[in-house]
Each structure stands twice: as structure tokens, then as C-alpha cells.
Design goal:
With about 210 residues, the chain is of the alpha+beta class. It has helices spanning about 20-25, 50-65, 90-110, 130-155, and strands at about 5, 10-15, 45-50, 70-80, 80-85, 115, 130, 165-170, 185-190, 200. Strands 1-5-8-9-3-2-4-10 form an eight-stranded mixed sheet. A two-stranded antiparallel sheet has the order 6-7. α3 crosses α4.
Length: about 210
Amino acid sequence: MMYNSRPNLMIGFHGCDELVRDELVSKPNQVKKSQETFDWLGNGFYIWENNYERALRWAEDKYTRGKIKKPSVVGVIYQLDYCLDFTDSEFTEILSYYYDLMKADFELAGKTLPQNKDLPQDQYHDKILRELDCAVIEYLHNQIEVKIMEDIATNKFSELKRFDTVRGIFTEGGPAFTGAGIQLKNHIQICIRNLNCIKGFFIPRNISKFP
């Protein structure tokens, strides 16, 4: 665990409506977490890691679907702290373990597991609606929380820690060129659960020519 704490400051970007951008900059303590059942990394505040263009494209896609009025991007200064990082095999193995536990619980209760689903218009079958992934990640967090509370009730402390953030790398959008293994919409996404990991918001400036 000594190598899993990541205190360094990082920069990311959040696609949103311009009004949301301005509110986050002027009222940085009023942050809303996503609570969708299909959130790719579970519930929390989402950031594209160091990827302004991908954040803007996401906001533009929402504009096209009539979900926002003016697509925009807000910059985010944050740290990962204790991160459930799915680019690290330690944590993908942990996720697999909790999937097996959740599956057993569902079978015992006679329930059907949720499934990841494609959007009807998605020609690349990227499983945009990730209800299974979200459910497993939220199950993991909930089980850890239950164990922490049990430990505190019994021993007054717990060696377990809550995850502050979740990080994942995703490939989507179809090949960058014919035969490519690189996808057009490849990105790293961050889900912030502990909002104290967010240190501030800013309006990104335009790149100026040098000199």
C-alpha cells in the first residue's frame, strides 16, 4: 500500500455546459457527482486526464443530443491520493475478486446481473452503457465500507482505506486507420469520489503563439 498513495497534483478536464463551467469556477465547493447506473468507473465527478480535446468532444456530443446548451470545458487541478487504478494489475485482480462475490450474492438472491450494453447507433460496439462495470465497482466500494465500519465497531480502527479516486484507460471509437490497434477515442478517465482531491477549477486559456 505504501506505493498506492499519489499526492502529486495533476491537470484534467471536465466537459460540460458553459454555465456549469462558470459555476464550478466561481463556486468550487458546489461539485455534483454523477450517479448514473452506467458510469464507467462508478459514481463520482469525472475528468479526462490531461485531455482537453476529448472533454470538449464529449460536451459537443451532448450538445448534439440536446442535453446541454453551450458545450464547454473546465480545467481541474486534482490529486489521485489512494487510487483504484485499473491500469495496475493489482487492482484489476481486486475487481475480479469482488465481481465473483457480487455474482454469488445475486445468485443467492435470485437476481440477474446487470449487463454492459451498446447504444443502438454505436457501430463500434464500445459498450457505452456500462451497467455491469458500474455495479461491480460500486459493490466493491460498499463492501469495503461495510468492513471498515465493522472493524471500527470491534477494534476502534481499521487497516482498510476508502478509495479516493478511480482511474481507467479506455479504447473506443474505431481504429485510427485501417488495421490499427489504436482507437480514435482512446483516453484515460478519472472518477473522483473524495471531492477533497479536487484542489481547484480554472477556465483553460487558448494556446498563444511563441514568441
